[in-house]
Structure formats: structure tokens, C-alpha cells
Design a protein that fits this description.
By secondary structure, this protein is mainly beta. The chain is 10% helix and 51% strand. A five-stranded antiparallel sheet has the order 1-2-5-4-3, with no helix packed on it.
Length: 81
């Protein structure tokens, strides 16, 4: 995870060919806070490959998503972060 806020998050991942849906629900597990949030509705904002020559032989991509219609319970969970 690169960044997170009440409005969305950005993360990097190994781009091994599986596609990320443009919208849907995701689950978030944050070990440091012992926090697990299920079924977070989102809409993809950006998704692009990163230059990886020096960093990894596996392609890496960065994705940013915007949270959609968070329930008060999920909104409260994000405030803990």
C-alpha cells in the first residue's frame, strides 16, 4: 500500500497478467493495526505499469482506487488508520 485516505487508496502489485476489475469490492488487511475491512466498494481511478529494470524482474504496476458509498462503520474503520 502506497497511500490511504477516507476517499481511496493507492497500491503497487506484481503485474503477472491478472486484471483488476474497474469497479467492485475489495478487502483490506492491515497487520500493523490488526484491522480487516471487508467488501469495500471502489472504482478504479488509475492503473499503470512502472519501470522495473533495477527493482524487480517481475513487472510492477500501480493502481489507485476511489472508495464508493462507504457505510458509517467502514468510514469509522478508516479513521483508525
Amino acid at each position: 500500500m502506497i497511500d490511504i485516505s477516507l476517499k481511496g487508496l493507492a497500491f503497487e502489485y506484481f503485474d503477472v497478467g491478472a486484471s483488476i476489475p474497474k469497479e467492485g469490492e475489495l478487502n483490506l488487511l492491515v497487520w500493523d493495526y490488526d484491522l480487516y475491512i471487508r467488501k469495500i466498494p471502489y472504482r478504479m481511478v488509475t492503473n499503470f505499469g512502472l519501470e522495473t529494470k533495477e527493482h524487480s524482474p517481475i513487472p510492477i504496476a500501480r493502481c489507485s482506487v476511489q472508495f464508493e458509498n462507504l457505510s458509517p462503520e467502514k468510514n469509522w474503520s478508516f479513521k483508525l488508520l
